Amino acid sequence: MNIHEYQAKAVIKEFGAPVSRGKAIFSAAEAEAAARELGGPLWVVKSQIHAGGRGKGKFKEASAGEKGGVRLAKSVEEVKQFAEQMLGATLVTIQTGEAGKQVNRLYIEDGSDIDKEFYLSMLVDRATGRVAFVVSTEGGMDIEQVAHDTPEKIVTFAVDPATGVMPHHGRQLAQALGLVGDLAKQADKLASVLYKAFVEKDMAMLEVNPLIITKDGHLKCLDAKVSFDDNALYRHADVVALRDITEEDSKEIEASKYDLAYIALDGTIGCMVNGAGLAMATLDIIKLYGEEPANFLDVGGGATEEKVTAAFKIITSDPNVKGILVNIFGGIMKCDVIARGVIAAVKAVGLQVPLVVRLEGTNVELGKQILRESGLNVIPADDLDDAAQKIVKAVKG
Ligand code: ADP
Ligand code: MG
User: Fold this and answer.
1) Domain 114-239 indexed as CATH 3.10.20.880
2) Per-residue pLDDT tens for 91-121?
3) What pTM value is reported for the model?
4) Residues whose CB is under 5 A from ligand 2 (ion)?
5) Residue 270, annotated as binding a ligand
6) Which superfamily, per CATH, for 21-110?
7) Is the CB of 141 inside a 6 Å radius of any atom of ligand 1?
């Protein structure tokens, strides 16, 4: 689960991380009041959407002005003017895709005098089973370029969960960022504060880009992006309360109601598969034969007919879907359950596009028979390769 920048900052601030003062607002009038309260002389008006690259983003509407999604303002009037321009407008960044995202809330923040911009992030390194820090002196809006051109400028170290953050981690952080004296002490504190926040809140990722040194010698988290481990949300009611479903894909929200592992993609072939590994292999083979998948979907091992029906409805609700591939290897999952679910869903929502079904495993004959006798226009397939070729051919016409 993702949250907005201002929420992420509030979370890490609770643990003692240095962030600027600011206020989230929903209207230009609120923006003006927030600007007065903060006092200036410099403010930053920041679009709150669940995507990065806002600073370099562009609004679709000409009325939103030429500047990006993060704007420096030098007066209360300017804050208000930017808020009027940005609220309701659609911001396109490198992470939103072409459609962009509507900006419905802004964060009005104290402007900082920046001396240097660093990069810091933390994530769960599955290879070592540890929380890793990823840091670079080359922070700011071009970090992707740094990672591509000069990867040696990115330093990584991991923390053993048995010990937690130790003084040597603080020193490693300071050294990686070239900090000495008081700034090194601040880096040491920051490492332990952020690690504590990460672990206690069950974060999956925390990115502070930029982490800055202010002209008066303080480290500050100027941007913050946090995503939480969904499997641990049950023990963080306070985190769940931060969810903004207007930022999420409506198909993914629907899927989460049925506990389906669904991720929307940009392609044309809708996929219903059981097992994450088989689902990924299915996406790969669709690409191999020259088409793009419209989604990742793992219906899981113990899916009921109701769940399969819901999954099928979600797939067909995507207007980009030009064909559907059902690929089931029945182990715990039974092929006849899938067949009944598919038929129930088609009866409910109709079938406008070609449907290829590949069934194998438990109750396969029964499943095939149910589909045959349904009278539905199903294209049967024998194996994964056959199924992929058939759906690609059907879609290409
Ligand atoms: P994004 O990463 O989505 O582009 P950031 O929050 O990192 O958004 O903002 C982009 C840039 O704007 C930062 O790299 C920084 O240079 C500047 N900036 C952001 N917040 C402030 C602030 N409070 N004071 C001064 N400059 C800021
Ligand atoms: Mg940033």
Assistant:
1) no
2) 999 999 888 999 999 999 999 999 999 999 9
3) 0.84
4) 209, 223
5) no
6) ATP-grasp fold, A domain (3.30.1490.20)
7) yes
